[in-house]
C-alpha cells in the first residue's frame, strides 16, 4: 500500500487507501496493483504526467476488476509527494478522503462521491436516466442514504462494481498543493473514520505531536474515532515529513524526516483552507535515498 519511485529523476513517494464493498476482490486488486500501474505508466514526475498516469491506471484497474468475474467494488485514494518538486497530489474515487496538516492548520484534499452530498454526481446520474432514491422498508417507508438504482450504491465513483457499470465510473478527482515548507503530515482515512471524526479533530490530534511515529499518529486518530462507536471500516494511513531544507544545508534532499515531524501548534488548527479495520501506516524514509523502502 506504499511505494517509492524515481520518475525521470524525480523522487516520488506514494501511499493509498481503499475501502471495499460487495466482497474483497476489488479492494485486494486495488491494493496490489494500482501503485505499480501508476509508476509504470508515468513518464516523469510532473503534475500533468502523474495525473494522466493516474487517470489511465484507475481506468485500467477498473476494467480488469470488472472483467474478472466479481461484482465487488472499492473506493480508492492515491497520495503522492514529489520530494524533488515539492508537490503533493491526491487522486480519489469514492469517499475515502485525505487531509493535509501543518502548523498553519489543515486542508482537506479530495471530493466525496457520496450521492447524498454531491450535487454534481446526482446531476451526472440523472442525465444517464439512473433512478435516485432511498431504500424502502417492508412497510413502504424510505430511509438511509440516497442511492442509485439498480444496485443501490450510495457512492457512485469507484473501481469495480461490474453490475453497475452503466453509471459507476473510475474517473478520479485530482487535488494538489505545494508541500508545506515547515513540514507536516498527510492523513488519509476511510469513511468509517470521517463519519465519526471531523477534519478539525483529526488535525488537532496530529498537531499535538504526542506520538513518535506515523503509525502511532494514525493509531490515535483511529482510536479517537472508535471511541465513538464502530460504524464502518476504520482505516487510516499517514505520511510524516520534515521541513524543507535550505540550499546550504549539509543534509541532502529537499525534505528531512524526523520521528515527530508534525509540529506542535500553540493554537487549535484553523478551519479548512480548501474545498472540501486495520491500521496500516508508513513513514517517509530519509529522502536522500530515493530507493529506500518505507519503514
Automatic annotation (TrEMBL):
The cross-references to Gene3D superfamilies, in alphabetical order and at most eight, read: PPM-type phosphatase domain
Coiled coil regions in record: none
Entry-linked InterPro entries: PP2C, PPM-type-like_dom_sf, PPM-type_phosphatase-like_dom
Outline the extent of the PPM-type phosphatase domain. Answer: 1-241
Output the Pfam families linked to this UniProt entry. PP2C
| Positions of region (Disordered) | 259-295
Q: Where is the composition biased (Basic and acidic residues)?
A: 267-278, 286-295
Where would one find the signal peptide in this protein? none
Query: GO molecular-function annotation terms?
Result: protein serine/threonine phosphatase activity
Instruction: Spell out the protein name for this chain.
Output: PPM-type phosphatase domain-containing protein
- Can you name the source organism? Chrysochromulina tobinii
Its ancestry begins with:
Eukaryota, Haptista, Haptophyta, Prymnesiophyceae, Prymnesiales
Amino acid at each position: 500500500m506504499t511505494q517509492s519511485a524515481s520518475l525521470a529523476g524525480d523522487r516520488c513517494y506514494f501511499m493509498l487507501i481503499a475501502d471495499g464493498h460487495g466482497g474483497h476482490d476489488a479492494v485486494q486488486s486495488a491494493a496490489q496493483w494500482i501503485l505499480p500501474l501508476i509508476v509504470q505508466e508515468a513518464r516523469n514526475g510532473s503534475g500533468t504526467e502523474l495525473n494522466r498516469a493516474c487517470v489511465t491506471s484507475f481506468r485500467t484497474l477498473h476494467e480488469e476488476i470488472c472483467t474478472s468475474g466479481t461484482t465487488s467494488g472499492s473506493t480508492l485514494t492515491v497520495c503522492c509527494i514529489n520530494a524533488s518538486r515539492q508537490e503533493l497530489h491526491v487522486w480519489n474515487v469514492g469517499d475515502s478522503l485525505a487531509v493535509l496538516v501543518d502548523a498553519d492548520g489543515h486542508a482537506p484534499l479530495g471530493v466525496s462521491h457520496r450521492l447524498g452530498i454531491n450535487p454534481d454526481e446526482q446531476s451526472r446520474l440523472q442525465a444517464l436516466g439512473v433512478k435516485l432514491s432511498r431504500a424502502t422498508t417492508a412497510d413502504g417507508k424510505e430511509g438511509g442514504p440516497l442511492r442509485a438504482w439498480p444496485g443501490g450504491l450510495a457512492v457512485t465513483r469507484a473501481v469495480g462494481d461490474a453490475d453497475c457499470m452503466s453509471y459507476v465510473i473510475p474517473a478520479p478527482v485530482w487535488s494538489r498543493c505545494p508541500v508545506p515548507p515547515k513540514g507536516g503530515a498527510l492523513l488519509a482515512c476511510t469513511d468509517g473514520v470521517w463519519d465519526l471524526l471531523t477534519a478539525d479533530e483529526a488535525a488537532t490530534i496530529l498537531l499535538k505531536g504526542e506520538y513518535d511515529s506515523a503509525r502511532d499518529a494514525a493509531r490515535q486518530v483511529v482510536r479517537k474515532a472508535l471511541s465513538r462507536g464502530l460504524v464502518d471500516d476504520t482505516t487510516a494511513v499517514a505520511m510524516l515529513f520534515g521541513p524543507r531544507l535550505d540550499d546550504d544545508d549539509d543534509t541532502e534532499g529537499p525534505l528531512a524526516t524526523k520521528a515527530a515531524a508534525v509540529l506542535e501548534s500553540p493554537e487549535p488548527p484553523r478551519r479548512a483552507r480548501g474545498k472540501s479495520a486495520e491500521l496500516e501506516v508508513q513513514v517517509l524514509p530519509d529522502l536522500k535515498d530515493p530507493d529506500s523502502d518505507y519503514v
